[in-house]
Amino acid sequence: MKKRVFLWNYWILALSLALGSAAPAAAQDLSTLYVTPKILASYQKADMSGGHERNSVFGLGLSVGTDLSYSSSLPIRVEAEYLYHGSEDFSAGGYNHDVSAHSLMANAFLDIQTDTDLTPYVGGGLGLASLNDRISGQGSSVKVDRWNFAWNVGGGVAWGLSESLALDLGYRYMDLGDTKNTLSGAPVNLSLTAHELSLGLRFTGF
């Protein structure tokens, strides 16, 4: 229980630092705000007791943020993001893991201005991941629900279609944490990481 409370406090602190710095500018000018619905292709690796396996899965997400460059000389964006990383089966050592993953992240990005419609960016984020792992094997089954510290790092490029709309193509490496349990007296641990491509539409200004 103490670990779970600590992780929630950690995420709340990270989110407050990321979005709190942008709140005054956003309150004065809603044109700095943006919303980005996105689809996600996640190439996941599960390291399990007894081996590892890689699988691909699709997911969905939504981010809400603000562009600080409107109120300062810094080409920085900060955002809060929810992602559903999909559900996939992984098997190793005679056990099957049916895993679904969700994450809540506080992200920051540095935009690289090019004086064209294309704007590359780099960045990363901190937050929480929820792993729901249904484990079966040896005639038994158990379910593990766990919140973990999560982090990501990556980059991408935004293609400005108009003053208020951009197509956003991104890549990230994501660490979603792990689950731990025993089944029939044997450890059935799992650690989940992913290489992810996202495609979204960024709507700016309200």
* Number of helices, counting only DSSP H or I runs of 4 residues or more: 2
Which range best describes the helical content: under 10%, 10-25%, 25-40%, 40-55%, 55-70% or over 70%? 10-25%
Structural class: mainly beta
Oligomeric state of shown chains: single chain
Task: State the name of the first-level CATH class.
Answer: Mainly Beta
What is the number of domains?
1
What does the average pLDDT come to? 87
Shape: elongated
Main beta-sheet annotation: 8 strands, antiparallel, barrel
Beta-strand percentage range = over 45%
Architecture, CATH level 2? Answer: Beta Barrel
- Strand line-up in the sheet with most strands: 1-2-3-4-5-6-7-10
Which parts are unreliable, with pLDDT below 50 for 5 consecutive residues or more?
A: 1-7
Series of secondary-structure elements, N-terminal to C-terminal: HHEEEEEEEEEE
CATH level-3 fold name: Porin
Strand tally: 10
